[in-house]
Specification:
The structure holds two protein chains of two kinds.
Chain A: H1 3-7, H2 23-47, H3 54-58, H4 61-94, H5 98-113, H6 116-130, H7 136-161, H8 165-173, H9 178-208, H10 220-231, H11 235-262
Helix pairs in contact in A: 4-5, 4-7, 4-10, 5-7, 6-7, 7-9, 8-9, 9-11, 10-11
Chain B: E1 3-12, E2 15-25, E3 30-34, H1 41-48, E4 56-61, E5 64-65, H2 70-78, E6 80-83, H3 95-105, H4 111-124, H5 140-153, E7 158-162, H6 170-185, E8 190-193, H7 197-203, E9 206-211, E10 214-219, H8 221-226, H9 231-241
Parallel strand pairs in B: 3-8, 3-9, 6-7, 7-8
Antiparallel strand pairs in B: 1-2, 1-4, 4-5, 9-10
Helix pairs in contact in B: 3-4, 3-5, 4-5, 5-6
The chains are: A mainly alpha, B alpha/beta.
Chain lengths: 267, 243
């Protein structure tokens, strides 16, 4: 093989980057990436003096399952709720009612500018306590949704504002109502801008749900910590924890990539 | 159409665009609005389209006063077809869907009925082969013709064109102007803001020249373009005909 042919397996020149790659080349490079990662992990762990104790931890697998399912439950609910909150906050910001605009801005800036950990503690130990509300799950779900909703509202607002004024004018000229304009003109165009950012946000939300362990919501991380404490082991708990979150976040990324392709149109 | 504009004024900020405009026309099919940029012709058209509210004054169309309140304006806009300079069409919809959207959602046609009507109009405009293309796949001229098809499909009482060919090259300009001329020959009422003096001469019954927010001259093309009475018109024509 000449050097010129060999280079095609690892390098694409700038003018060929839009072309699809041959499947063989793709598989080769993915394997290469995995190999590099595996080498790094292998080297790091080989330097570690650690008594692996998988058997003991394995006996607590039902803890992991229960926690993972709870995280799945709370994340899916928060995903829907935060999108609704984000949408409402974005629309409130754009509404003509000045007090709504002010509330929306105050909400977004306060929530985005403070740590989730503080918000969760404050919501549960101060606000919920004041109203004698003891449902940890509900408080956790709501706080997490409010937190993500603030970011999502900015993502949605950016998407809405990316739709040009001439489009709104056309919608007005053909006689669409405000609601119809959002439904048939703004959202279908804004969604292209919104989706990629939203995917990242949803993955964050799932990982952020781990912080709910501080108010003893029995989600994935909380359960892993329990097992860790019971068995005096660390990595045997953290590795399944990492994989468990990846199993949740990866499908979201793939799903939005597929959606992005479906909603694509030329401009 | 019968059009009466009474003392209409409009300012944007401290910029007065229309100053006490008066216009009275009986039985005119095609009105062309011409004049220098910033003279107020587009603003007058947009007020008649129900897209802008005048600061003062009244407008009546076919003996019916336009009520400048949002609810009434919406109904007014729905009875009129407006075509803009460019970017009329929705990029996420096909040519056909661009036409069926207002038919279904605004004029309450059944989906099949709307598709049928839209297809017929596209065929009449020789655009059938482009029905399922998105605006990005169409040429500028085809896009404008689809936009005109959308405006015509709702059976408007009046068609308004705001510089419909200003963003097009000469060849495409010709195909769009030809279509507008055909619509005129069908006897439709239309009003057009244009910089194409030859075209205005061909199709207009009446031409109004707006300059400095006032109507400088109003009359048939043979008067306004060939034997202008006003000094403003003479200067305007001298300027644009120089090159």
């Amino acid at each position: 093989m000449t050097g010129d042919k060999w280079i095609k397996w690892v390098w694409v020149s700038a003018d060929e980057r839009t072309k699809p790659r041959p499947p063989g080349v793709l598989i080769f490079n993915w394997l290469l990436a995995f190999l590099l990662l595996a080498l790094l992990c292998f080297f790091s762990f080989s330097q570690l003096r650690y008594n692996w104790n998988w058997d003991t931890v394995g006996g607590y697998s039902n803890f992991f399952w229960r926690g993972w399912l709870n995280t799945l439950r709370i994340s899916s609910l928060a995903l829907v709720l935060s999108t609704v909150i984000g949408l409402l906050a974005a629309l409130a910001r754009r509404s003509g009612l000045l007090v709504l605009t002010a509330i929306s801005r105050l909400y977004v800036e306060l929530v985005r500018g403070t740590p989730l950990l503080v918000q969760i503690s404050f919501a549960f130990y101060v606000v919920a306590d004041a109203f004698h509300f003891q449902n940890r799950f509900a408080v956790g779900l709501f706080t997490l949704s409010l937190f993500s909703g603030a970011f999502i509202s900015e993502i949605i607002r950016g998407g809405i504002e990316s739709v040009g004024g001439s489009q709104l004018e056309s919608a007005r000229a053909i006689g669409l109502t405000r609601l119809q304009t959002y439904r048939y003109v703004i959202f279908p165009q804004a969604i292209r801008v919104i989706l990629p950012a939203l995917a990242g946000m949803f993955a964050n939300l799932i990982k952020d749900s781990s912080l709910l362990s501080v108010i003893s919501i029995e989600e994935f991380t909380w359960n892993a910590q329990q097992v860790s404490a019971l068995t005096y082991s660390n990595f045997e708990c953290y590795i399944p924890l990492a994989i468990g979150y990846l199993v949740l976040t990866l499908p979201i990324t793939l799903w939005t990539q597929w959606l992005e392709k479906r909603t694509r149109y030329e401009t | 159409m019968k059009l009466k504009v009474t003392n209409v004024s409009k300012s944007f900020g401290d910029q007065a665009v229309l100053r006490q405009v008066n216009l009275e026309l009986e039985k005119v099919h095609t009105l062309a609005l011409i004049g220098p940029s910033g003279g107020g012709k587009s603003t007058l058209l947009r007020i008649i389209a129900g897209l802008e509210k005048p600061d003062e004054g009244q407008i009546s169309l076919n003996d019916k006063g336009i009520i400048f309140r949002e609810k009434e304006l919406m109904a007014h806009r729905r009875s009129i077809g407006t075509v803009f300079q460019a970017y009329n069409l929705f990029p996420h919809l096909t040519a056909l869907q661009n036409i069926t959207l207002p038919l279904e959602k605004v004029h309450h046609y059944e989906a099949a009925e709307a598709r049928q009507l839209a297809s017929e109009i596209l065929e009449r405009f020789q655009l059938s082969e482009h029905s399922h293309k998105s605006p990005a796949q169409l040429s500028g001229g085809q896009r404008q013709r689809v936009a005109i098809a959308r405006a015509v499909s709702i059976k408007p009482k009046l068609l308004l064109f705001d510089e419909p060919t200003s963003a097009l090259d000469p060849e495409m300009t010709a195909e769009v102007l030809q279509l507008i001329e055909e619509l005129r020959e069908e006897g439709r009422d239309l009003m057009i803001v244009t910089h194409q003096m030859g075209f205005a001469h061909r199709i207009a019954d009446q031409i109004a020249l707006l300059s400095g927010g006032r109507i400088a001259e109003l009359g048939p093309p043979s008067q306004v373009l060939d034997e202008p009475r006003s000094e403003v018109t003479r200067q305007f024509l001298a300027k644009i005909l120089k090159y």
